[in-house]
Structures are given as structure tokens and as C-alpha cells.
Write a structure and sequence with these properties.
The protein contains 14 helices and 10 strands. By secondary structure, the chain is of the alpha/beta class. The chain folds into 2 domains: about 180 residues, 3-Layer(aba) Sandwich (D-Maltodextrin-Binding Protein, domain 2); about 90 residues, Periplasmic binding protein-like II (D-Maltodextrin-Binding Protein, domain 2). Helix 4 crosses helix 5. The longest helix has 22 residues.
Amino acid sequence: MKNKIKVLLCLCFAFAVTVFAANSKEFKISYVNSALNLPNMIEKDQKLFEKEFKKDGYSFQFPHYFSAPDQAKALISGDLDAANAVGAIAVIAALSNGADIKVISMYSRSPKAFFIMTKDPSITNIKSLKGKKIAGPQGTVLHEMLGAALTKNGMSLKDVQHLPMGIDLAFTAMESKTVDAVLLTGAAAQKAKASGARIIADGEGLIGGELVIAVSGKLYRDNPDFAKRLIKVHRQSLEYLKANPEKVYKLASKESGIPENAVKEMASYQDYDPQFSPVDIKNLKSTVKFLLDNKMIKKGIDVDLYFQNID
């Protein structure tokens, strides 16, 4: 009798392990700390995803990404399940090319957090950028800001030499004097400011500076509840930020290597309202026009259709 009970218990245990293994899955969610995305830092530090999905047997990896186009490509290839804080401009470009991506929430809008900076004393305003070498990421919010600033001053991207490169490389290029100006945000902008660089313009009045949360289309179709719970976790991070700002500033300072006062300054530029507003939609339509006008996409997209909250 005892042996039968032991066998039965072993079978039950084996069944439970099998069910857990069948349900277990590892998800990859992008981690972007270079732009001082505070909710990302909170979610990782407080293990909010692990806590939310503990009973589901899910595990998580948080690969670092430094550009929005790379996040979009990773969603398309399947190397990433969710892009947490991805530039809307990169998502628009991917959708225009038929990418299977689902936008599930707004992340932030922060036009004042994007900068055109220089150490060249001859550059005093946007008009003096004509013919100059400007380094920064292509197909990003920063790139759109440069285009908008030039247009406002009667020029276009054709009037400057834009050298596509990542933010950190752009900062290094400015320090080595191989470029005349740079497009920066986040920690790199604060480091540039500390090293003596001047701000020629920020994105206020030029762009919306929208970041969104997006998942692969397949993940959303197969597991829409998972996507909704990602938003739940994101909102938990916003509640934590509201309740513990000083703790978060200390965390961000440690993560980015910049002083707390600089973190506070950057945080003041951010609007983390997770809902898409009419102003957001208007700005995103302007982004589509920017991409079309500069032949970076061949066809537009229906912003109202693709950029909606799913909850």
C-alpha cells in the first residue's frame, strides 16, 4: 500500500513538473537606460515583471538596447518580445515596411529631453549649422528633431552633413573634434554638458518626442493577456516613481553614472502619461510626414489605427 502511494505521489509530481515546463517561457524585454527611462529602471530593480508573472512560471531577460531602430528590428526578428520605451518614429518606419508589430501603450513624451549640442564657437544657432558635420542616430526622435529644426529655419537635412552613429559614438566624435555638432539625449547629453558642450536647441516646439511600448504581433495574437499585464506592470512602476522619487533618482544616478541633480533635471522633462492623447496622435502624423518627405519610408501608415491603448 505504501509503495502504491509513493508511486502515485511520484506520478503527480512528474505531472506537475511537466505542466509547469509546458507553461514556462522566457521573455525578452528591452532595457533602455541610456535615455534615463526611469520606469524601465524601476521595473528591473524592483523585479516587477517577475512578481507579476511568478505564478505563470515565466522568466525574463532584459537585453540592453541603445537605439529605437535596433529594438524594432529585434521585434521583427523575434529576438525581442517587447520593446519597452521605443521611439515611435522607428515603429512607424517598421510598420510602413509591413512589420508585424503591435503598439500597446504610450510610454512617454519628452521633447525637452532631446538636444542639438556643440563645442564649436562658430555655431551659435540652427542657421549656423549649414554645411556642418552633425553626428547622431538615424531614423530616431533625435533625427526628426534635427529635420524639424532645420525646416523651421528655412533649411533641410540636405543642407547639413548628417553622420549616422549611436549616441555614445556621437559624443566621442564631438570630444575628438571630428564632427561639428551632435544629437544627444539622456546621460550622454548630461556628460556633454558637463564637459563644456552648449545646447543649440532642444525638441520643444519641434517634435513630440514620443516613446511607446510595443510587442511582436504574434505575441499579441497568441497571448493578449500577457500584453495587458505588461501595461499593468508599467503602471505599477509609475506609481512607485510617484511614491519614491528620491529613491528612483538615486537608482538612476547609479545606473547612468551622472549626478542626482542632473537626473532630477532630466526627470522634469518627462511626461509618462500612458494614454495616447489627441496631441500625441497629431505629432505622430507629423512624424509620418517627416519620414515621407525625407524618403525614409515609401508609404504612410494610419496612425489612428496603429497607435491605440489596448486597455
